[in-house]
Write a structure and sequence with these properties.
Largest sheet: 5 strands, parallel
CATH class of the largest domain: Alpha Beta
Radius of gyration: 25 Å
Number of strands: 18
Distance between the termini: 78 Å
CATH architecture of the largest domain: 3-Layer(bba) Sandwich
Strand order of the largest sheet: 3-2-1-4-16
Number of domains: 3
Helix content: 25-40%
Length: about 500
Amino acid sequence: MSEAKETKGAAQTKAKAKPKRPKIPRQPMPEQDAHKRAKNFESVTLGYSEEQAVTEATRCIQCKKPFCIGGCPVSIDIPGFIQLVKDKEFLKAAQLVKETNLLPAVCGRVCPQEDQCEKLCVLSKKQDPVAIGRLERFVADYEAAHGEVPLPELPPKTGKKVAVIGAGPGGLTVAGDLIKEGHDVTIFEALHKAGGVLVYGIPEFRLPKAIVDREVDYLTRLGVELKLNYVIGKIRTIDQLMKEDGYDAVFIGSGAGLPWFMDIPGENLNGVFSANEYLTRNNLMKSFDFPNYDTPIKRFKNVAVIGGGNVAMDSVRTALRLGADNAYILYRRGRAEMPARKEEIDHAEHEGVQFKNLAAPVRILGNEDGWVTGLECLEMELGEPDSSGRRRPVPKKGSEFVLPMDAVIVAIGTSANPLIGQTTPDLKLNKWGYVEVENEETCRTSKKGVFAGGDIVTGAATVILAMGAGRNAAKQIQEYLETGSWWTPNGNA
């Protein structure tokens, strides 16, 4: 045998002898018992221990081309922070995440990682992807548990002023980025508490409000001014902010909080709520903790929630915790077509929520005193796909049925509040009432110096997408403040 063949053979033997990387299963998330948690508003998921986090981080293969970063709307250095977790450098991992994500404790709890970063994880081709969201939550919680988060050194003041309308995820992100550039930033929030949908929309059992308060406190420590109970369009207009109050740029991040209804008979009965009102009463006003908080809400026994998204799941699980004997989800398509996160659907089912799929309400029934007594529905079947790609629900003739009910919560979507558009005549809106922008990268509106992003532009979407829009807007605002140039259809202005 020649020397070359011997060398080749030895190399092949060595390659065959190379130990395979052990397959470590994805670490399960510890949770409260389903029967117990269905009766309280404490956090459903309990978070990883240090040991679980390190084990899960070990699953990451540190790809040379990390596709997961491309799936993250704010481009977190995912392999970098996971490697730090593996090395037990938890505080450094948290600081690395915070370079691009102001709200990691929030995103790690409520963002749909399964459709974003984790969806692109290389491991998902043959096994479960790395639990990126759970690790993000772990490092954020670890940082919070180990003392006050240190503030970065800020540059000298530029003398520029930026107004941010709305203290939701997008507005908080813009404010956090621009205060670090040396600008003075003021957030104008219509409600009495900052956080937007994080405080009024998402229940305590999914996102403890202390976490949101912690992140907002971090911004105010950085120097962001926060004006609460301040409705732009009523107290001041955008024109007044810019022409009279001296703001050099404005970001509109007011969200899409105007609820839709079904336009069916009986929607004016007592016991009919929009999901916005129902969740705001419970989450922001803390009616679940009456009488410690003075916002009472009637405890209904038979509750139907109309819709299949995350807001519907939040509403029905809240109803269950408030003492409902029967809490239903009525959705006109099948379970496979539900837009809610699978995790939230599973949690709801485990807690005792009853699913009535392929059912559409046609009339709300009431008594002579004006209170809901029932819900008349039609059975549906799925036809051809519609513009959303989901199969269209088609009514089955003669399939009417009635469910006894004393409350109906409508969670079928929201749109933009028209107030800002009505008081800013040169701000262009689309036919649905959302603010038009040049594109979602520049966030520039038709009005010079005014930018917009998040749900007020796209319609209701996710927390992390709103933060991504905020990150884009902050970059564009910074460029505008430095150069003064503005895009118009005829060139720069």
